[in-house]
């Protein structure tokens, strides 16, 4: 009983919440002041196998969009991220870490370039809207910064493409990975991207217009019955195995992007200007002191990790696990952890301290975890 | 089962979470990416009567502090709010609406002035940290903006003062309303303010140092046993009756402070400069088109309001209720609502549409609700 979630307007419902409730959702999380369904199947493992084999429909409306448009839009977006956004085409999605002047991570959204000087940042759990507003006001930029009425719905899993082609036509197939196109739905044009928070393939429909939510959900649901469709949500086993990191879990404002292995998204040669550049160049020069790594560890299926679990070598704490779960494929517990540079080599033996439970033997691994 | 809350590191535990779990907390909300206990007693009504008669201890760590310090600190804080902060003494708490350039509310925190150019903003549910960072960077201000390790613990109710005097000494009595002083605890100096999110009186201890959390909780809990202390949390009946508004519920970024009745906290004569001033002056000149009001309405005890409930007069929607509950004192349902200016007079008959339930007769009331 201790894990009930008290509802209020502040914890915003989505256009799909009625539908997920009707389908028996068993729990929610809260992301960006909005409900994110977190459990449908009796176990995370059943959900995991289904996601890997069939197709699921996910209410990910909590991936709020921060819309930045106007004359100075590109300038503002570039200031916020170390990634060179001049390389982003219209119709492209780009993963862009956002940092502050200390190079601390503020968010790790996906940027969608809708037009020259017209962007959406599809955000993880922090109010990027307020950071962008503060910067725009402070700099006196000529931009509009707002949260539009857009409610992403993900269709994930190996059968996702076939299902969406069946509903929306064969053009869906032509959309490349991390690219987006447009579909017609009820007389409206809706954005669809080949993206999503799983490694099983699929799409995200960025629905504009809450009133169309029930209809969109039902259209996909009905058409999906032949494909064994089920309601779903980001699956913790699949996400950890696949090395998909989560803002607030694996990374916070206390971390810089190099610690999270995001070097390839950081242009540090001075060719672009962004907030935190000097600090990030310094860090790159001296080398990071900790980095995100996988850990495989013993024991029965572990409980939920809701506080960092200390990781030790001998008497020394060398890091902490921030997300962990039993992997049915690896037949072992697996976790994501921030680990001291002296102990981050693959195969390094460590001890994992699960609070109020026990200490387990483990070893450092790369991510994604590999067979 | 549909209201379970899935736990993760991202939904941060507090130094008091172990204690509230031990005492049988029955539910949480999430505020500022942190757990807020939401239910202990079997009913909200039992909790309500207890709060009005005795003393309660509340984990309100989710009231995160945004610490702004440095040469330009006053300048930055003043830019963020229409309230004249030059009138704030060291040792004073001040309720300061924060707005953007469109005069939309970003938060409604309590400002604590620790020293010249050293402030805490004790925030409601939005990342003021990011707004302040954006502004500071954009303006090139010489300030530090961060979230310190401070975890407020509230002691509320008519017996709060006596209890805290017993534990921390008689100086606690000398602290005026919305002023703060300092207490000694385990060799540390801790800030204590006469404040809190109820109309029953009490204090908030802004504990610095998570490791002292359990000890502080237990010290108050043990000493409080003679005063019939219970664990508690902001009580929905008490808050609505008392006209305490909640950011995200009664107000969002779509509202300006004049709609929320915060005129007295807005200096619009041009003597201070802040973001959104021109827009707010315009709104003041033309008059607001809607305002927050109470509504008393018929029916059996109403369900939880998790989406705005339409309020109509004849065929016309004239507003919406955003929080509502059965009041045992008024023996009626009461709600807080945003109401069109043509229908906001006290006594105006309205209809309240509770989704999937019924339409009830109601009438407009002032807040706080009065006997």
Helix/strand/pairing class of chain A, anyone?
A: alpha+beta
Give the strand line-up of the largest sheet of chain A: 12-13-14-11-3-15
Question: What's the number of helices of chain A?
Answer: 8
- Number-wise, the strands of chain A total 21
Distance between the termini of chain A: 38 Å
Explain how this protein is built.
Two copies of one chain form a homodimer. Helix content of chain A is 20%, strand content 32%. Chain A has 371 residues and is α+β, with helices and mostly antiparallel strands. In chain A, the strands form five sheets. The first copy, chain A, has a six-stranded mixed β-sheet with strand order 12-13-14-11-3-15, sandwiched between helices. In chain A, a hairpin with a 5-residue loop joins strand 6 and strand 7 (105-107). In chain A, helix 5 crosses helix 6. The longest helix of chain A has 12 residues, at 128-139. Chain A is globular. The interface between A and B is large, with 55 and 55 residues.
């Amino acid at each position: 009983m201790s894990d009930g979630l008290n509802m209020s307007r502040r914890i915003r419902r989505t256009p799909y919440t009625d539908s997920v409730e009707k389908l028996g959702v068993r729990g929610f999380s809260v992301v960006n002041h909005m409900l994110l369904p977190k459990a449908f199947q009796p176990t995370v493992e059943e959900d995991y196998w289904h996601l890997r084999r069939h197709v699921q429909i996910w209410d990910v409306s909590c991936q709020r969009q921060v819309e930045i448009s106007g004359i100075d839009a590109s300038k503002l977006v570039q200031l916020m991220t170390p990634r060179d956004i001049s390389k982003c085409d219209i119709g492209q999605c780009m993963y862009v870490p956002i940092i502050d002047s200390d190079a601390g991570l503020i968010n790790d959204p996906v940027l969608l370039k809708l037009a020259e000087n017209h962007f959406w940042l599809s955000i993880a759990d922090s109010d990027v809207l307020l950071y962008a507003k503060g910067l725009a006001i402070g700099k006196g930029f000529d931009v509009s910064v707002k949260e539009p009425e857009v409610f992403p719905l993900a269709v994930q899993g190996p059968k996702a493409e076939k299902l969406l082609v069946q509903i929306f036509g064969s053009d869906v197939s032509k959309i490349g990975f991390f690219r987006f196109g447009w579909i017609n739905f009820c007389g409206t044009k809706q954005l669809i991207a080949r993206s999503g928070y799983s490694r099983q393939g699929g799409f995200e429909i960025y629905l504009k217009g809450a009133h169309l939510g029930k209809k969109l959900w039902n259209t996909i649901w009905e058409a999906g019955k032949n494909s064994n469709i089920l309601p779903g949500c980001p699956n913790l086993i699949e996400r950890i195995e696949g090395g998909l990191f989560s803002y607030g879990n694996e990374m916070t404002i206390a971390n810089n992007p190099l610690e999270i292995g995001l070097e390839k998204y950081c242009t540090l040669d001075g060719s672009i200007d962004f907030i935190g550049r000097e600090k990030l160049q310094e860090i790159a020069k001296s080398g990071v002191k900790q980095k995100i790594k996988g850990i495989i560890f013993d024991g029965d299926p572990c409980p939920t990790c809701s506080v960092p679990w200390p990781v030790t070598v001998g008497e020394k704490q060398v890091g902490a696990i921030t997300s962990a779960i039993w992997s049915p494929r690896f037949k072992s517990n697996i976790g994501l952890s921030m680990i001291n540079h002296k102990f981050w080599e693959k195969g390094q033996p460590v001890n994992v301290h699960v609070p109020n439970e026990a200490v387990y033997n483990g070893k450092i691994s790369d991510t994604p975890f590999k067979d």
